[in-house]
Amino acid sequence: QKLNDDVKIEFDVGSYLPEFSIPRGMGVIESYEGRRLPVTLVNPEDIKIHTRLIKKGEVIPFLLWKNYFRIPYQLKHKYKHVEKFKKGFSYDKIERYEPEVERNKFLIRPLYLSPYLKDRGYGFLNIYMEGPSRHHTGKYNTFLQVTDMGITGKFSAETNLIFVTDLNKGMPAGNAKVELRDDYNKVLWKGSTDKEGLLKTPGWLNLGLRKYSYNEVRQWAFVTKGKDTVFINNEWGTGVYPWQFGIRYNNRPIFPHYKGSIRTERGLYRPGEKVHFKGVLREKIQGDWKVSSAKRLKYEIKDSRNNEIKKGEVKLNKFGTFSLDYKLPEDASTGYYSVRVFQEQKKEDKKSKIKPHKERKLSPREGRVNISGSFRVEVFQPVQFDVKVWCEDKTYYLGDKARFRITGWYLFGAPMSSKKVAYTVSGRETFYSPPDNPGFRFSKMRWLDDKY
Prior knowledge:
Layout: E1 19-21, E2 25-30, E3 36-42, E4 47-54, H1 59-65, H2 80-87, E5 93-97, E6 107-112, E7 123-130, E8 139-147, E9 149-154, E10 159-166, E11 171-172, E12 177-181, E13 187-192, E14 198-202, E15 220-225, E16 228-233, E17 257-264, E18 268-269, E19 274-285, E20 288-291, E21 296-302, E22 308-315, E23 321-327, E24 335-342, E25 370-377, E26 385-391, E27 404-410
Parallel strand pairs: 2-8, 18-25
Antiparallel strand pairs: 1-3, 3-6, 4-5, 4-7, 7-8, 9-10, 10-11, 10-14, 12-13, 12-15, 15-16, 17-19, 19-20, 19-23, 21-22, 21-24, 24-25, 26-27
Helix pairs in contact: 1-2
């Protein structure tokens, strides 16, 4: 419908609803750039800021408590230090945040961190801000490392490589003190970077840590130089991966990685005979197969009914090999027998915080020795004679007479004279290729009817 006259409508609008935000999660603030955190806001109202300067010894329980890193649900009962820290936690400062900003404009203002760092210039800082916000819950939690050091880590089971740099100068940071810790905040190893800012450290396997799941074992590296401290662990960071350089790799390697074999001197035995076993074990160490560090292994032998008939322990020699013997009983059941050589799971140490998890045992492929073999037991007579058949010619045509020669000898050297011979002759289709004619052959066209 068309209006006859122009219509003028006037209405009043109010101000934008209050809104603010800060970066969430974990971050790094380079100290030499001014120690500021950006705050995005419009018409801020009644914002409170809570801050806590986190000590180096509090970083791990704090981050685990705030779920920056996951605690394995099967092992929550072992993380008592996290619950203890949680109960005693309090903020250093709680104050109102009242920036002077123009109304109804979306702005970014710096939050200066120096007052919360207690004039140290460096440190681990937790900031929690809450207040009215239009789109979100109005609650933001962030953990900041205010530092002048950059740290890069390559973590593995056998070795770790730590690289420390000066973020301001872009140069390696030599003589920086490095600590390796576990989830329980226990210091496992200490060292210092060289003049190139590098330090090679033991990996989790050589530090005595245990693997409880398919994920990698968490390792924490803390680096200190002067008053500045920074940390990293193997679950945090963007990462540089081999696939980016076209290199194949295993993203879930097995550590320690064992391979072995066990054999008998022959495959077939009679009841009452002695079975001789020989085995070898190798361990993959930094990419090479070497003699294993394992010294003693358990073994078990099962009969064809899967009944355990013998078990015990074998000792490996300096070449990583072992042997054992087993005498079959006179009434041994016939069939296939199995033998397994394995590494027994370690018992829990009541004094250690690092214990095997009862609710989930790792499979034999996950860092344990598991070698298996088999042999056969049957009631049989050894062969006493040998029979051979020769054909006088290799090629025959239709109508030709084929001639065969049969000989029989006892194994002690005498001929088998005047013995009856039973034989069968069978045939099958074949083809003929003329000489000097590659690619041609004569044969029945099997996919067509015989009349063709």
